Amino acid sequence: METQASPKILVIDDNAENRALAQATLEDEGYSVLLAASGEEGIAKFEMEEPDCILLDVRMPGMDGFAVCSRIRALPSGPHIPILFLTSSRDVDTFDRALRVGGDDFLTKPVRPTELVVRVQGALKLRRMSAELREHYELVRRQRDDLMRLQLQKERLMAFVVHDLKNPVNSLDLHAQLLLRNQELGSRARESAQRIRDEARSLLRLVLNLLDISKSEEGRLVVQPGEIDLEALFSALLEGHAVKAQDARVELRRSIEVRTIAADVDLLRRVFENLLDNALRHAPEESEVRITVTQCDAAVEIRIADAGPGVPPELREKIFERFVQLENSERVVTRTGRGLGLTFCKLVIEAHGGRIWVEDAHPGAVFCMRLPNEQ
Questions:
Q1: 341 neighbors 212 (Cβ within 8 angstroms)
Q2: How far apart are alpha carbons 47 and 165 in whole angstroms?
Q3: Is residue 230 within 8 Å of 259, Cβ to Cβ?
Q4: 8-128 and 226-372 have identical folds
Q5: Can you list the alpha helix ranges (DSSP code H) found in the chain?
Q6: What is the pLDDT of residues 231-254, one digit of tens each?
Q7: Which CA distances in Å does 46 have to 11, 21, 34, 79, 176?
Q8: Residue boundaries of the structural domains of the chain
Q9: Band of the pLDDT at 342, cuts 50, 70, 90?
């Protein structure tokens, strides 16, 4: 029996690392891989080798991916070859242009190996479909493209809104600080100015959370570790939350057994601020919020506990998802938030190679973090 030849995949990308990754990923799946380092070389190899599918980078010196796609589609054997665009530009304009020149699919970098294999498999299966099935697929694909375009437009709008919010929020915080420096300000006015500053900082943290979550989804959240004095960090955080704790009639306690840790101070500070805000929001009056930091093997464990309604066991993973707000009708209590702070915390802790989870505080909730910390 004659064995069927492996499908040939042509990878056109000017970046040698990208070509090597695509080659290794696809060859592991049994595909035959052809490589081209430029648009001109890719067109020449297409005409000589007649591949079954093309992976095409958008941004290349000389002839870019859009021009290459147009040239291939104009060749006699070009109209029916699946072309999958690869790009680091996750925006609706790039997406629309890729479709206009004849692209079949659109993957944003960094591309996960599993996703790459699945998309190539789908493109090859479509090529073998009958005409009737192809019509149905084209309808589904158009619907998918419409959804993708809407998603990209939403992301662009969110980026604009978040960026434009930073300046007025910073201005609110600055004016509140100016008021607090006025020695002639009355006690009630000073208290109001402090509350304005606290809320402005909370809003700024929400804005920054949105930006960092977006960066993480695009693979651009970069951790910049340095040595952190945990005692000094938590002292500053508790001092900054003192007014809020006093208003809530909640006592803040800490027990710091580990002096330093190597981590990104800005990201970790915002994680602790989010969790402290969360604890103070749910702690009942005349209770306490406890912070403990201990060494646990080759890691440091940080626990922030409150005596609030807690989190049911079946929802302790879900609470870290975007925009999740929990309600427990049996206990007639709610545990709600803006739905982004805990998502941000999980992304940051995992970016440091750690993990975050929730335990029962009997009563209340304990948010636990474990971060690598060699002693």
A1: no
A2: 52
A3: yes
A4: no
A5: 16-28, 39-49, 65-73, 92-100, 113-128, 131-180, 187-217, 230-240, 242-248, 265-282, 341-351
A6: 999 999 999 888 889 888 999 999
A7: 10, 20, 9, 12, 64
A8: 8-128, 152-217, 226-372
A9: confident
Q: Looking at the predicted structure, is the pLDDT value of residue 326 above 70?
A: no
Owner of token pair 């060749």: 75
Give the pLDDT mean for 302-325.
84
| DSSP-assigned letter for residue 319 | G
d(CA 119, CA 105): 8
Residue with the bigger pLDDT between 9 and 123: it is: 9
Start-to-end CA distance of the chain, whole Å, equals 63
User: For 257-291, how does the pLDDT look when each residue is reduced to its tens digit (9 = 90+)?
Assistant: 999 999 989 889 989 998 998 899 899 999 999 99
Topology classification of domain 226-372: Heat Shock Protein 90 (3.30.565)
Amino acid sitting at position 33: V
Q: Are 99 and 132 in contact (CB under 8 A)?
A: no
Q: What pLDDT, on the 0 to 100 scale, is given for residue 337?
A: 47
Report field, pTM of the whole predicted structure over 0.70: no
CA dihedral (118, 119, 123, 126) in degrees, to 10, reads: 60
Amino acid identity, residue 373?
A: N
CA dihedral 92, 95, 96, 100 (to 10 degrees): 170
Q: Strand 53-57's sheet: what is its strand order?
A: 32-36, 8-12, 53-57, 83-87, 105-108
- DSSP code of residue 314: G
The residue among 320, 323, 242, 251 whose CA lies nearest residue 283 is 251
- In whole angstroms, give the CA distance from residue 135 to residue 144: 14
Q: 8-128 belongs to which homologous superfamily? A: Response regulator (3.40.50.2300)
If you ran DSSP here, which 8-state letter would residue 284 be given? P
| CA separation for the pair 375, 362 (Å, rounded) | 32
Please give, one letter per residue, the 3-state secondary structure of 293-313.
Answer: EEEECCEEEEEEECCCCCCCH
Which tokens is 316 given?
């302790």
Distance, in Å, from the CA atom of 363 to the CA atom of 305, rounded to the nearest integer, reads 10
175's tokens = 């004016």
